[in-house]
Amino acid sequence: MMKKRVFALTALLAMGLSIPAQAVNALPTVVATLGTQTAIQTLYQHMENTKAATPGIAGSTLSFDEIERVVRQNNVSIKSLDQTLAGVGATKVNDQYKEQYDNLEIQMWQYQSEINNLESSIRALKNQQGDGVDNSGLIRSLEAQKAALQSTIASTRMSYDDLEDQEDDATEEIGYTYNTTKEQVTNTANQIVMSAQAAYIAMHTLEDSIASAKRNLQALDRNMGVVQTQVNVGAATQLDILALEAQKEALQANLQTLETQRANQKNSLAILCGYGANEAVTVGEIPEVTVEMLGQMDYEKDLEEARKNSYTLWAKQDAIDKASRDYANDVTHSLHAFEAAKIDLEAEKENFTNSFRQLYKTVQEDEVLLESAQSSYAQEQKNFAVSELKYNRGAISKNDYDAAKDTLETAADAVKTAKINLFSAYNTYQWAIKGTL
C-alpha cells in the first residue's frame, strides 16, 4: 500500500505538479489503498480543495485580513531581518573579552612569581652579609628589578580595570545596538506589509480601470457604427471615422498598459507574500470602512498614540541619545551634535503633526466623496430606469439605451473607486497610529 502511495506522489511530481506539505500531510490514509490512477486523481483534488480552503497558500484566494500574517510569515526579507536581529541578540560580549582577561591575569601571575623569586634572593643575600661578604650592590640591583616588576604589575592591573570598563561599555553598546536594530527591523517589516497591502488594493483599482477601458472600447465601437452609417448617407466624412479609429488605438494601448500593470502588481504581491514570482495570487474583496470604524477615529487620542509609536520620532530621539552618549564617553568633546539633534527632533515633531493631520483630513474628505458618488449612483439608477422603460416602449434607440447603461456602470465604478480610496486612506491612517509615519 505504501508503494502505491509513493508511486502516486512520484507520478504527480513527474507531471510537474507542486505538492504542498499541507496537502500531503492531510491526505486521507485511504488514498494509499487505492489504485495508482485513482490515487493521483484523489490527491490532486485534495490539493485543489486545500488551496481553496486555506488562506495564505500560494494559489488560494488571499483575503485582505490575511495579508499581514502571510507576509510576516513568508516574506524572505522579513525572515532575513529576523535572523539579523537574532544574531545581534545572541552576541556575547563576555566571550570577546575572556581571552584578554586570561592573558592579563597570566601576565600578573608571572610578574608576581618573579617578584616572589626576587624577594627570596634578596633575603638570602642579606643573610649572607658580614664576615667580609658585601652583597649590597647585588641587593640594590635585585630591588630595582623588583620595583620595576611592581610598577609593571600595577600598570597591568590598570589595564585589567580598564578592560572591565571597556566590557561594561561594550555590553551597554550592544544593548543600544539591539534596541536600534529591533526598531529598524520592526519598521522595515511594517513597510513591507504596507507595500503588500498597497499592491493588493492597486490590483482592485486596476481591475476597475480595465473594466472601464473595455466598456469605453465597446461604446466607441458602437459610436463608430453610427458614424459609419452617417458617412454612408453623407452626414459625416471619412475623417470622422479616422478620428474615432485613432481614439480606439489609444484606448487599446491604454488597456494593454493597464493589463501589464496588473500583471506586475500580481507578481509584486506574490513576491511580497513569499510565493514565487510566477505563482498566481487571487485577491478577495476590499473591506469596507463602516460608520462605526469612522466614529472610533479620535484625532487627539490617535495623534498621541501615533507620536508614541512613531519610528521617525524614535529615530530622531535616538540621535539625541547617541550624541549624549558620545559626549559622555569622550567620543566627542563638543555639544554641537547634541544640540543639532534636539533641534532636528523639534522640527520633525511639527512635520509629524502636520502629516498626521493631513491623513486624518484625507479620510474625512474621502468619506464625503464616497457619499457624493453614492448619491450620484442613486440618481443614475433612476435615470437608467426611465431610459429602460423608454427603450422597452420603443421611444429610444438601442444605442441610446446602451449609452444610458454605460453611464450607470460608470457611476457604479465611481462608487467602487470611492470605497477603495476611503479604505486606503483609513488603512494608511491606522498604520500611522501604529508607528509607520
Keywords:
mainly alpha, two-stranded parallel sheet, 13 helices, 1% strand, disordered N terminus, 437 residues, single chain, 2 strands, 81% helix
What would your notes on this structure say?
The chain is an all-alpha fold and 437 residues long. 81% of the residues lie in helices and 1% in strands. It has 13 helices and 2 strands. The protein has a two-stranded parallel sheet. Helix 12 (336-392) packs antiparallel against helix 13 (398-434). The two termini are 59 Å apart.
Terminus-to-terminus distance: 59 Å
**Lateral strand order in the biggest sheet:** 1-2
Overall structural class, as computed from helix and strand content, comes to: mainly alpha
What is the approximate shape? rod-shaped
Q: What is the overall number of helices?
A: 13
Order of helices and strands: HHHEHHHHHEHHHHH
Helical content, roughly? over 70%
Strand % is under 5%
Let me know the number of strands: 2
Largest sheet: number of strands, sense, barrel closure? 2 strands, parallel
Radius of gyration: 39 Å
The protein's oligomeric status is single chain
Uncertain segments: 1-40, 46-56
Question: Mean of the pLDDT scores?
Answer: 84
Helix and strand layout, with pairings?
Blueprint: H1 2-14, H2 21-26, H3 36-53, E1 61-62, H4 67-74, H5 76-89, H6 93-127, H7 136-232, H8 238-272, E2 282-283, H9 291-295, H10 299-309, H11 311-328, H12 336-392, H13 398-434
Parallel strand pairs: 1-2
Helix pairs in contact: 1-3, 4-7, 5-7, 6-7, 7-8, 7-13, 10-12, 11-12, 12-13
